[in-house]
Design goal:
This protein has 150 residues and is α+β, with helices and mostly antiparallel strands. Helices cover 18% and strands 45% of the residues. The chain contains two helices and eleven strands; from the N terminus they run βββββββαββββα. The chain has helices at residues 65-73, 130-147, and strands at 9-13, 17-24, 27-28, 34-36, 39-49, 52-53, 59-63, 81-84, 90-98, 107-115, 120-128. Strands 1, 2, 5, 6 and 7 form a five-stranded antiparallel β-sheet that branches. The protein has a four-stranded antiparallel β-sheet with strand order 8-9-10-11. It has a two-stranded antiparallel ribbon with strand order 3-4.
Length: 150
């Protein structure tokens, strides 16, 4: 099996922001066993104007197997996902808000990062079209076996 050193990404570019999805494979120990499951790394950045994005001030969110299961439980109206590492003051939240009315079938991908101790927060939203949303769902489903090393 050939392993690609640099995984491919799926990127959505919009006027107000961009979202990038990258597969992070699981880590294996010296015996070849999975020591840490993989994830789909979601990175979002605000638009910096003129088709440029502020990737140096991005927000990252690791979408793991439990997150994928929660999203797939109700793909038409996915739940808000919240990550907070033990011992960390940073809380990250991911929302996929369905559009209404003339925007039905679209989604607004919203990612926030709040640091309680430092009192700072970031927020980025990226509109997602129906085809892009379907692609996201298919990539998450396809990534699932790889995340657990199957």
């Amino acid at each position: 099996m050939t392993t690609n050193k640099y995984p491919g990404t799926f990127t959505i570019y919009k006027k107000i922001g961009a979202a990038q999805f990258t597969l992070l494979p699981p880590r294996r120990d010296e015996n070849g066993r999975i020591s840490k499951n993989g994830a789909v790394l979601l990175e979002v950045a605000k638009s910096a104007g003129d088709k440029k994005y502020g990737w140096s001030d991005k927000i990252s969110f690791a979408v793991g197997m439990s997150d994928i299961c929660n999203i797939l439980d109700n793909p038409d109206n996915p739940p808000r996902l919240v990550h907070s590492m033990p011992g960390s003051d940073t809380v990250k939240a991911l929302e996929l808000e369905p559009g209404e009315g003339k925007y039905q079938g679209t989604y607004m991908l919203k990612l926030s990062e709040n640091n309680k101790k430092e009192g700072n927060s970031k927020f980025v939203s990226v509109p997602v079209g129906p085809g892009e949303y379907q692609m996201m769902m298919r990539l998450l489903m396809h990534a699932s076996p790889q995340l657990v090393g199957w």
